[in-house]
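Researcher: Hi, I'm a grad student and pretty new to this. My advisor asked me to get structures for two proteins we've been looking at. I'm not sure of the right format, so I'll just paste the first sequence and hope you can take it from there.
Model: That works fine. Here's the first sequence with its structure tokens right after it:
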Amino acid sequence: MAEQDNEQAGEALLQNARRTLREQPRRAIAGLCVVLLLGLLTAALASSLQRVSADDVCADAVAGAVKPMALSGSYAVDGGEERPYAARQALDAKGIGVEAVTVRGTLENDVAAGELVNMRLSSTACTVRVNGETVFSFDGIGDSEPAGEPLLGWIGFRSPGISTRDEVEIALSSAASYSVLGDYVIVLDSLCTGEPDALFVASVASHLPMFVSGILVLIAGLILLLIASVGYLIGVPKETGGLRFAFYVLIGGVWIFFCFDYITLLIPFPAFTTTVSLLAQDVLALLQLSFIASRATGYPRRLATLLLAALSLMLGVCIVLRLAGVASLYEANVVIIPLFVIGVFFAALALAVEARESRDRMAVDATLVVIPCTIGSVVEGLSFLFGGVTTGLWLCAGILCAVVVRFVALFSYARSQIVQAERAHRMEAELLQSRIAVMLSQIQLHFLFNALNTIEYLCEEDPPVAARATNDFARYLRGNMDSLMGSQMVSFRNELEHLAHYVAIEQLRYPSIKVEYDVRADDFLVPSLSVQPLVENAIKHGASRRAGEGVVKVSSWREGRSFVVRVTDNGPGFDERSIARFKEGVDVGIPDNRPPGEAPARNHVGLANVAARVAATCGGTMRVENEAGGGASVTMTVPCEEEGGSR
């Protein structure tokens, strides 16, 4: 049963892989590359444990200072004539293709028995003889694989006891097919005694800029990755390629931090650290090409994409050959690094030309990021090919410059977005105020004329009523002006007070209209001038069209996390077409039974207008419907935000 379940699970996994390869080939290829990289790193770590023990490159804590070993005598290059040699002097030989260097002489200081002798190898085999007797020998390969990586890092041995009278011979030879003079100089200049902890402190101190820069670049990469991830998830256009650049900075930080002058003292697995450093060096070029492809257009984009595909395929082949034991990654890098450097250079050049011609802001920003990284990559590549080592400082400086440019661009973009958001908010507020002003002007067109005519008539017929009407009219106008100039949200109590003045004036024209109130909640906020238009529609287009007494009812209550305001009337109700038009956002009134000469309903304050204001101001909703027993109702629901501001 268990075997059957395993077979079914395997079949399902295989089907998913086939579907991914068919439907999303890019994701499948990326996944395959990740698997290859993880496989190579795992193999490198496992083989380094078998080949070079941790005790060889890093021991547990012991105190003691690091003392340089000064060897003076003679040296010979590739078995040639011997020349005088003094400690840390320059070797007179061609830079590339040096197969072996042998130094013979005596030490300036004794090295006691049991004292740890250290040397920093750089793809070199080393044999140490004292008075003709071999005391240490290492073939320069850091792991046990058929195509093992050469050791790039520290190694040591315990001294048998060496005095200043003993003849010391150090025979160095290349552990790789590609060799340069700088590899041997590194070994000879690094000779010292001291325990690993002290050696680590001394190495970090002498390479402090690299150590600190690596940490800074790693931190910057993590910050950029966080920013780019958030931007990518929310769909920020400016973040096109942001994730790729963040990964570029992260991998660059790894490469810088994995400095061979101290990393094997911290991580005592030389094959693993060598593989990580070499892979990081290669992946950096691919990520830079990927970033260029994401920001460029036209020919530069096609060029970067083509180079990315070709170089990715080349690196994939190298990894497969390394896993198969055919060729080491170090040997492969000697071939592919020049191609990577050339590819990055021409892709960056094409992007710079495009930015210069188009003046596109995104292309210019990308160019300012890519140029320092490209300069650093070119210098480091040339240093690797002709000096056998990479300083790391050039690429580190390039990445840090690019990071600064990137942060400035992101800050500028964020600032522009804030300005745009503030401008949009201000324009929205101005638009809302304009709509309120239009609404007030619409009210004044018909209401002011009718109210003034009524007051004029009452001044002659019933002065006390005219005085009350004038007071209501003045308070009503004051309420309108306060709403126009004040906050968008007002207390429902204030809205009811304003409504009372309006109703008092309208009842002078429609004495048969009765307005009832069922207020069960009034301590909440509503958009200003949102209730009065509902009552106006109920009076003008509902209750006033009914033969006999017309009734308008204003109700309010709390319902869960919302407050509800409902205005009902016993008029003829809405027709279905009007309800449909309201749902579409079109202002509606009651077109039926309109007295001759009265303005069309669309010239009054529209319900859809009020609904739009309610939605824009507080996120509320409105609905219109006919009552079962006749009449119509308009229901406004607003979020539960009370006068105190709590929700």
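Researcher: Oh nice, that was easy. Here's the second one.
Model: And its structure:
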Amino acid sequence: MASNSIQQQKELKIFNNQFVVLKKLSSGSFGVVFQGEDKKTGEQIALKIEKEESDEAKSLDRESQILQRLQGIKGIPKLHWSGSEGPYNIMVIQLLGRDLAYYAKHLKRFQLKTLIMLAEQMITILEQCHLKSIVHRDMKPENVLVGRDHNEIFLVDFGISKVFKDANGNHVPFRDGKPFIGTTRYASIGAHKGFELGRGDDLESLGYMLVFLYKGSLPWQNLQNVSDKEKTKVVGKMKMQILIEELCKDMPNEFSKYFEYVKKLQFKQTPDYEYLKQLMRKCASDNKIELDYKYEWALLERKSSDQSQHNSQRNIKKDSSHNDPNKKQTKNNISTQSKLKPEIDSEKVSKSKSPAKNTKRQSLIPEMQSQNQSQSSQFDFLRPPDPYAKARAIIQRSQERHKSVSSLAPSQYSQVNTVQSSIAGNYQASHIDMFATDSQQQQQQETTEKKQDMIQAQNFGFQPLESNDTIAMLIGEDEEGPCFQYQELLEKQVQAQFKEILRNGNKNRRNR
């Protein structure tokens, strides 16, 4: 069976006898995206490929039909070709750059100038899509890509988009009781209520996206003790209850006015896009910002390109130095000179060294300080003095296991479960023994305190978790990503399992 799939991959290197597949860019439940080349023009293209019998293939059909309808709009990728070959549906579009989620991660927060230019361009793109009777229904940073020249942005992923007017220009009727659609973090209030989505919902989602890009987060991110099933409901309630002034705190007043307007839009009402763009221009004028549409990520990409060129040049120099006999001779001369140094130099060095006792003591704590420093940033609740170092060492090992697990392919998780569980048990048992007391009476008292601490921890939602539970959660991926899920569970696990140990260590220190 594996040989058949390999054979299919070999046969599917060229589509429509024109588009050559070069390398994979990304993959997911939607299918696979490849970078390729148009044989006729030499232009670089992107190929989105899905299996024909899958539900996602129907989504790809819908997306290609909508893209065909939107062709010619600035900020919509060019559709080169779509069709099916063998068991696959294929859509070939213009090759673009990175998405805004990537730049949000690296830049942390967008500058106001970037935000205003981005907002004005996105409002214009949505306006043109709405004029073609298309609502996007999934506005988020991952669906906004930067052009190859870094100064133009594109709206992509129309897989769940919808036509809201029929051939006669009649608007679809309002309906409720619809399933939630979109991305929880950026979805409109109407999406959370189960309403049919319209043009105002696209603009509201764009508003949440702009707040996220400017502030670096939204109030409903990183919810604790909320299951994936409850998240959509809880986030929707938070969006309904939050005041616009609170949502747009520390942002120019024009963004509050933006939300005030889009939230009042009726389902069939045509938005005043020009008014919204004027708000952005006024914001730029008040803050003396020139809208030159030179985005800050262009500088980031330039630095990245310069760094890669510098590294390649340095590698070339290294290779040439290895082959240079003169440099080898120079190194030999230096080593010879160092051997001829007087013995008094070696005596100075020996005097400057610390005594054997200090050396031994330092060797006993070789990495603990660096471990403690790295832990303090990731686990704020673990900032104790020396008695806590052993517990932190346990956490450090847990993080190292996390890195090795998170780098595995999904098919390899099952192979890790048993090993991961036994390793965790061994670490815990060996290090807990170090904190054990000699007195049996003290042990009984500590057992009672431990139970009380565990009950208190459970009341706060810090349930002790097995390693298998952690890995199972790692497999499940939502908008926050698998690494976040593991880290959140790891913190709860550490809080529940080591709280009483650290407390006893502190108590022993006070008794001394």
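Researcher: Is there anything I should tell my advisor about the second?
Model: You could mention this: The CA atoms of residues 181 and 191 lie 6 Å apart.
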